[in-house]
Every structure is written in C-alpha cells, then in structure tokens.
C-alpha cells in the first residue's frame, strides 16, 4: 500500500475505533461489578441525540457533550434500577433499553426537528490548538478533542480498576458479591456506581459520534457500535489495554470495509461489506484462547433482603 494511502487509513482507524473504546471502557465498569450490559447501544443513542440537542440549544458543543453524558447517565440509571434494585434479567433489560432509547431518540428528533435528521450544529471534529506542534501537529489536529478525552479516561480507568481500593472492591463484587457483603461492603452501591459510570462513558461515546465524527444526529447513526463495544470488552478481557487493542482491530476492519465500498474493488454489495467488522469480531471471539477473565458473578442477580419472598 503506497505511503499516501497509509496515513489516511491510520487516521480513519483511530477515528472509527474511538467510540468503541470509550463505550467499551464504560462497559468494563458495568461488567466488572457483575452487571451484564447489552444496552450500550441505547446509551450511545441517547448520548448522541442529547449532545446534538445541547449544541443546538446553546451553541456550545462542549455543553452538548455534557448533555450527552447526562443522557447516557439517565439510561444507565434505568438499567441499574431494573438489574440492581429489582434483580431483573440483565440481557433482557439491556436489549429493551436499546429499543427504548432508539424509539425515544427518533420520536424526539421528529418532534423537535421535523425529520429523522437534525440540522447541522457546532461540533468538535478537529483540535486546532495542536496545529502548531512540529511534524505531527497537522495529523494530531485532525482528531476530535473527544478522542484525547477518551484516551485520558482509559488511563484513569486502568488506574482506578487495578490500583485503587474502589477498583479492588469492584472486581470482588463481580466475582463474589456474597463474600463482599459479609465483609460489610455495600454491594448495591458498588453495582449502581459501575452501571452509572458505564452510562456516562457510553453517553460520551455517543456524543463523539454525533459531534466528533459528524455535526448532526440521524436515526440509526450508531449502527451497531454499541454491540461492537460489548465484543471489545469480551475480547479485551475486561482490561482498558485489551479493550483499546480490540477496538483498534475492529476499527481497522471497519475502515477497510468503508474503503472497499468507496473503491468497489471487489464488486460486492455495500451490505455484505458492512458485515466485515462484525464477522471479524465473532471469528476472533470463537478462536480466543488464554485465561478467562470473565467476572464469575456476571449476569447474576443479587437482591437486597427486602426483595426476597
């Protein structure tokens, strides 16, 4: 591949992997405390729409990102209420949340903007402050500030999960909540915190897709990135470093299928080419070997005594 084509491909891979990494990092918190989250897609949809709405109403894309984070937090609170408070089925709650958020976002978009597409708003597609850096400035400035925010959140998350008492308790709750409760630690508070952090980060990931990659919201724009983030957590063994590597791998396949669609190199339909990153994720999961880092109590309800009959 010629040099002139390599740099755009690398830039494209980073851009496409960013939402999967941010949402995957959020999902890591959720699943580390024992709550399965298949609702990352819905949380991202909420964040994407709310971010555009916030930027549209205030003219500030950063306030839009705040709106997106709060919307994701609200979606996470719904998932936490069903799974943590009432012991509902985690998978059903997550899938139902995705359908709910997709429906609400579509309804509000049509009600407010009169279409399934929003108007263009102020966005965060580039980081012009980095242009002056010698040699690499012209490349770094092409990335959204939200990508750098995502990298910072990943580093902070690694430190929290593996180097703090909170991270130790979080991992313990995901493996054996009964023993943790016996030690006098509030299991439900930890589980709530993990799910809410997940919602906030998924909201930021959705904000990136609507304000970092584009400058508008449209129905169906998340396009499976939430489920790709779920795959990234499994493939990355619930570690920020592993999630980053997996997100970059999936981003590479996504960038390749987009390039093949543009160039029509293979003459295949866009629908078939669009399946490439998802098939790659499934294949890697099937052949993945090594230590199973899955939290032992993942997807297992643990109720307060007041809900036991």
Description of the molecule:
This protein is mainly α and 309 residues long. The protein has one domain (18-223, 294-304). The protein has 13 helices and no strands. The radius of gyration is 20 Å and the shape is globular. The model has no long low-confidence stretch (mean pLDDT 86).
A few lines on this structure:
The chain has 309 residues and is mostly helical. It has one domain (18-223, 294-304).
Topology:
Blueprint lengths: L2 H30 L7 H19 L2 H25 L4 H24 L23 H4 L4 H19 L1 H11 L1 H6 L4 H27 L11 H11 L4 H24 L6 H5 L1 H12 L22
Helix pairs in contact: 1-6, 1-9, 1-10, 1-11, 2-3, 2-4, 2-9, 2-10, 3-4, 3-9, 6-7, 6-9, 7-9, 10-11, 10-13, 11-13
Range of strand content: under 5%
Give unreliable regions as ranges: none
CA radius of gyration is: 20 Å
Q: What's the order of the H and E elements?
A: HHHHHHHHHHHHH
The percent of residues in helical segments reads: over 70%
* Largest sheet properties: none
Count of DSSP-assigned helices: 13
The gross shape turns out to be globular
Tell me the span between the first and last alpha carbons: 65 Å
Average pLDDT, to the nearest integer? 86
What oligomeric state do the depicted chains represent? single chain
- Helix/strand structural class: mainly alpha
Number of domains: 1
The tally of strands reads 0
């Amino acid at each position: 591949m010629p040099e002139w084509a390599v740099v755009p491909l690398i830039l494209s891979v980073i851009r496409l992997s960013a939402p999967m990494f941010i949402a995957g990092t959020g999902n890591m918190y959720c699943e580390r405390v024992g709550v399965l989250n298949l609702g990352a897609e819905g949380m991202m949809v909420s964040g994407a729409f709310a971010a555009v709405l916030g930027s549209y109403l205030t003219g500030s894309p950063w306030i839009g990102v705040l709106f997106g984070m709060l919307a994701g937090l609200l979606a996470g609170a719904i998932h936490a209420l069903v799974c943590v408070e009432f012991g509902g089925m985690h998978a059903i709650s997550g899938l139902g949340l995705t359908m709910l958020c997709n429906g609400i976002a579509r309804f509000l978009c049509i009600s407010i903007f009169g279409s399934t597409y929003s108007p263009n708003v102020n966005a965060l597609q580039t980081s012009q402050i980095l242009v002056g850096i010698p040699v690499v400035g012209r490349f770094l400035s092409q990335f959204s500030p939200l990508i750098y925010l995502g990298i910072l959140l990943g580093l902070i998350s690694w430190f929290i999960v593996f180097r703090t008492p909170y991270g130790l308790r979080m991992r313990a709750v995901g493996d054996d909540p009964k023993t943790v409760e016996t030690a006098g630690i509030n299991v439900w508070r930890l589980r709530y915190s993990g799910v809410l952090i997940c919602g906030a980060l998924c909201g930021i990931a959705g904000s990136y897709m609507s304000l970092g990659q584009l400058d508008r919201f449209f129905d169906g724009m998340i396009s499976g990135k939430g489920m790709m983030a779920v795959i990234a957590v499994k493939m990355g063994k619930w570690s920020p470093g592993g999630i980053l590597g997996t997100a970059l791998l999936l981003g590479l396949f996504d960038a390749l299928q987009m390039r093949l669609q543009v160039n029509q190199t293979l003459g295949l339909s866009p629908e078939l080419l669009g399946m490439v990153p998802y098939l790659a994720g499934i294949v890697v999961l099937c052949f993945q070997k090594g230590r199973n880092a899955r939290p032992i109590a993942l997807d297992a309800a643990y109720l307060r005594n007041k809900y036991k009959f």
